[in-house]
Design a protein that fits this description.
The protein is α/β, with parallel strands linked by helices. The protein has three domains: about 140 residues, Nucleotidyltransferase, domain 5, CATH 3.30.420.40; about 110 residues, ATPase, nucleotide binding domain (Nucleotidyltransferase, domain 5, 2-Layer Sandwich), CATH 3.30.420.40; about 60 residues, ATPase, substrate binding domain, subdomain 4 (Actin, Chain A, domain 4), CATH 3.90.640.10. The strands form five sheets. The protein has a five-stranded mixed beta sheet with strand order 3-2-1-9-10, sandwiched between helices. Strand 2 and strand 3 form a beta hairpin. Helix 2 runs parallel beside helix 3 and helix 5 packs across helix 6. The longest helix has 24 residues. The chain is flat, with a radius of gyration of 21 Å.
């Protein structure tokens, strides 16, 4: 087989590109820089798009193609996918690549067709779509081909997926708006309510990652952050402690647990017992949050496992699925 095989994990916040031989070769923001007339700017995708907008804030806007499980900027999606396929496979090529794209499981049929069309227009020979929870399971090393079943909780930046996987397919599933960006917003609102300080999005994300949110986490943590006072906009620094953010963590654990329980109720009884025995595998960037795995496991009374690189599981799984294109198309290719 001389054609190159490329995997693309297109997430709400980050896009990762993987090849069969090299693993993850690109990891950049899922963003395109656009002019007022929506014309593409040279190399204005990913990190370069962010840098370009910083240099020319008045004439450039950043376009994020996905919001949760929806395509909200179709033109930007087309440009982004075509840019990465061309960038990895090259403008001059003797053989067109086979491409697999990981997408949010709740993506609508029209948006799925748009992804297929964009990658085809970039010169792909074949295009396959794989839902993010299945890719995450493969990337985490779960036996997704087994008939026994595996339970994946994938926590994305814009949407999260809970799914029971078996025989390289999804048996029961629910997409939910519990996501990294939603947590950032809740953290910022909590700081504002407690300390009367308005913090930037990146500061809220730092707090989310460095200060324990999950209830029962060992070792109290705190972080000094700066923001502005509402009304006066005067800068002020406050110390935010884990107990300040505890309600955010408690709500997160409870919401996730309720989704997992609904998915398990929708799983056939014969498979449910095997899934409970194996426990939960948590992937996605938010899976790194301090104490979240143990807290969720205690609430569900299930073992919770977090892989060493949970934010990369979908990309790695998309790459590994390239080796399994013989799996029936109904499981990896969606044109509905």
């Amino acid at each position: 087989m001389l054609a190159r095989r490329i995997g693309i994990d297109i997430g709400t916040a980050t896009t990762r590109v993987v090849t069969r031989a090299e693993g993850i070769v690109l990891e950049e923001p899922t963003v395109v820089a656009m002019t007022d007339g929506d014309r593409r700017l040279p190399e204005a995708v990913g990190r370069e798009a962010v840098r370009l907008q910083v240099r020319h804030p008045a004439g450039v806007r950043l376009s994020w193609p996905l919001a949760g499980a929806r395509v909200v900027e179709a033109q930007a999606l087309d440009l982004l996918l075509q840019h990465y396929v061309t960038r990895v496979s090259g403008h001059q090529r003797l053989f067109r690549p086979d491409v697999m794209v990981s997408i949010p499981s709740g993506l609508r049929s029209g948006d799925r067709r748009r992804v297929l069309a964009a990658v085809t227009a970039a010169g792909a020979r074949t295009v396959h779509l794989i839902d993010a929870p299945l890719a995450a399971g493969i990337g985490a090393g779960l036996p997704t081909q087994s008939s026994r079943g595996s339970l994946v909780v994938h926590l994305g930046a814009g949407v999260s997926d809970v799914a029971v996987l078996s025989r390289d397919g999804t048996i029961a599933h629910e997409a939910c708006p519990i996501c990294g960006r939603d947590l950032d917003r809740q953290v910022a609102e909590r700081v504002l309510a407690l300390h009367r300080v308005r913090i930037a999005d990146e500061v809220a994300e730092q707090l989310k990652c460095e200060v324990a949110l999950a209830p029962g986490t060992r070792g109290a943590s705190a972080l000094a952050v700066s923001g502005s006072e509402p009304g006066s906009e005067r800068a002020r620094t406050v110390t935010v402690r884990s107990e300040d953010l505890a309600p955010v963590g408690e709500a997160l654990v409870e919401r996730l647990a309720q989704v997992v329980e609904r998915v398990l109720r929708g799983t056939p009884p014969g498979l449910r017992a095997a899934v409970r025995e194996r426990g939960v595998t948590m992937t996605g960037g938010a899976a790194r949050l301090r104490g979240l795995g143990p807290a969720l496991g205690a609430r569900l009374q299930l073992a919770v496992t977090v892989p060493s690189a949970p934010d990369r599981c979908v990309a790695l799984g998309t790459g590994r699925a390239l080796e399994r294109l013989e799996v029936p198309g109904r499981q990896l290719l969606y044109i509905r």
